[in-house]
Amino acid sequence: MADLDLAKTQVALVTNYGxxxxxxxxxxxxxxxxxxxxxxxxxxxxxxxxxxxxxxxxIQGGCPKTKNANPMDDGSGxxxxxxxxxxxxxxxxxxxxxxxxxxxxxxxxxxxxxxxxNRPDLDxxxxxxGKLVEGLDTLDRIAKVPVQAQPLNRRxxxxxxxxxxxxxxxxxxxxx
Length: 176
Description:
11% of the residues lie in helices and 33% in strands. It is mostly beta strands.
């Protein structure tokens, strides 16, 4: 990956609702960008699902446990390590890609979310590391899927009632 220009590299998130094309900000979150691109390159995200969808807020994916048949563990998986937070002056605006965490510092890994609306209250609490350059229509389609209560938190109505699959995360590399 040392030969990739991460500022020009893009990843196509191919879903069963369409494709979202992501560009990155390695100048603001270098380790987070490197991690996401490496996971995409290695096929880590292929076959996962978006397990949290809140219209007017965000869609969340990147959990490897969404590949199994047990919905009780959706959202609890990661790559087996955690990243140090890379907060910056980038803001949580519609179409932004940000690293999810466990609500505690330095607990991100593979789960990410795409903002469906502006949410400045998330700034400097989650690491923004990219944005959609294409596919806002896909984001809107996903945000409108029917949802139900999460299995482990019945008060949170964000679990898609239909599968929202991340079929492939396709690396569109640009070499240095």
